[in-house]
Design goal:
heterodimer, A: 117 residues, mainly beta, four-stranded antiparallel beta sheet, B: 116 residues, 0% helix
């Protein structure tokens, strides 16, 4: 069965520090998609990135970057020069084709990121 | 584009009553809609998947008679929590997918249900 592990429950850093959020996944499929979402206190999920299993290129978007490594089944997310507005809960999610949940997403438990001014 | 709305955004109801939550795709046709539940400080858990015009597929452990899902049109799915109890208090989030982009799900803003 598919599984997503975010071992870091909470991370607290001071503004302008870099921070990396870890995500490790399990799947039997060779075709799958990985996602990162941000959930601010309002609750609404904000889509950050989607990566398919055949594209291992790292991606950078402004202060955000993602490192996808199939060899270690990891899809880590780094925020450079963090800002207070980055404070939120971040979820890593997986969509594959092997689970009984049709093709809904399997979410990790989330990492609560606190950026202190 | 790809906007999903939910109504209401929050609702308080008394124990034993039923409450209906609507999920609408505003600018696309949603062939599939998903319902998730999120308890405080916890992750999102998939409850069910519904395809337009078909019966919903429920995840293991989700009571289909308690959480009634209807996906009668390509832009609307409803989740009815029947005979609600305080333990049903949660944040309910829907997402929608179009057949044209099968790997993408567009999430609604969520509905916070409190049962007193």
């Amino acid at each position: 069965a598919q599984k997503v592990t975010q071992a870091q429950t909470e991370i607290s850093v001071v503004e302008k520090e870099d921070v990396t959020l870890d995500c490790v996944y399990e799947t039997r499929d060779t075709t799958y998609y990985l996602f990162w979402y941000k959930q601010p206190p309002s609750g609404e999920l904000v889509f950050l990135i989607r990566r398919n299993s055949f594209d291992e290129q790292n991606e950078i978007s402004g202060r955000y970057s993602w490192n996808f490594q199939k060899s270690t089944s990891s899809f880590n997310f780094t925020i450079t020069a963090s800002q207070v507005v980055d404070s939120a809960v971040y979820f890593c999610a997986l969509r594959d084709y092997s689970g009984g949940g049709a093709d809904g997403l399997t979410f990790g438990k989330g990492t609560h990121l606190i950026i202190q001014p | 584009g790809a906007v999903v709305s939910q109504h209401p955004s929050w609702v308080i109801c008394k124990s034993g009553t039923s409450v209906k939550i609507e999920c609408r795709s505003l600018d696309f046709q949603a062939t599939t809609m998903f319902w998730y539940r999120q308890f405080p400080k916890q992750s999102l858990m998939l409850m069910a998947t519904s395809n337009e015009g078909s019966k919903a597929t429920y995840e293991q452990g989700v009571e289909k008679d308690k959480f009634l899902i209807n996906h009668a049109s390509l832009t609307l799915s409803t989740l009815t929590v029947t005979s609600a109890h305080p333990e049903d208090s949660s944040f309910y989030i829907c997402s929608a997918r179009t057949i044209a982009v099968i790997y993408e799900q567009y999430f609604g803003p969520g509905t916070r249900l409190t049962v007193t």
